[in-house]
């Protein structure tokens, strides 16, 4: 008999989550900061999947234990920053995990009427998987710790007409520093990421060379990310940092390279080339080729004659 799969626990409000964690009611209903100081964190729901309807930023100076994200476990011993957007599925850490740091929760309503609310999409790390967390240098940890301490100090003040403006500006500063530090991480781990790019190019070459594209369609960013075991947004941000191209642009470049090879060495019709590369409609191939090379596939082929 199969074990019954329990549905995820859904938390719609920060106050509800604080009650579950045994924490005091948040001073501000739309934002809360939890401080951990190397104490063991336990929960009656350890191992259960949860969904929260707000943002989460976790800062760990040190961490003993494992975090589960999807089917993978992530060892976060060195600490750093991890981010969750609303309605992402995570698993409550197992009993015995110990933290040293902070966890910030803030509801989308806190920033909805601010410019930050419209710019949240630019902080792509909220779509990264936990195993793509931000590893911080000791100097960066000091900067981040200072930002969290400033947020804590503001939350300990009496709420007035300036409170929300200040909190939102502090959160935005934290996110901007996180963007900076992620860009540094892409560069300092360049060798690891170059290996990832090589693996991706090998996969694309195999897809195009064995006619798999014709059967499966044009490769997608999601397909590549699944193969490389990274999140689609992390793949795009990593490529943007190292090559200046998005993952979609990278796929198109490799596709055009293969198209040029076929057009210059075969007698296949333009439509047959399009189908072989995975396009359902040849005009879509023609449009992409012309946008990438400033000439049509037919004109490109004729240039070799």
UniProtKB/TrEMBL annotation:
Keywords annotated in UniProt: DNA-binding, Transcription, Transcription regulation
Residue span, HTH araC/xylS-type domain: 198-303
Gene3D superfamilies given in the database record: Homeodomain-like
Gene Ontology MF: a single term: DNA-binding transcription factor activity
InterPro entries according to UniProt: AraC-bd (IPR003313), Homeodomain-like_sf (IPR009057), HTH_AraC (IPR018060), Tscrpt_reg_AraC-type_HTH (IPR020449)
Superkingdom: Bacteria
Protein name per the record: AraC family transcriptional regulator
Source species taxonomy: Bacteria, Pseudomonadati, Bacteroidota, Sphingobacteriia, Sphingobacteriales
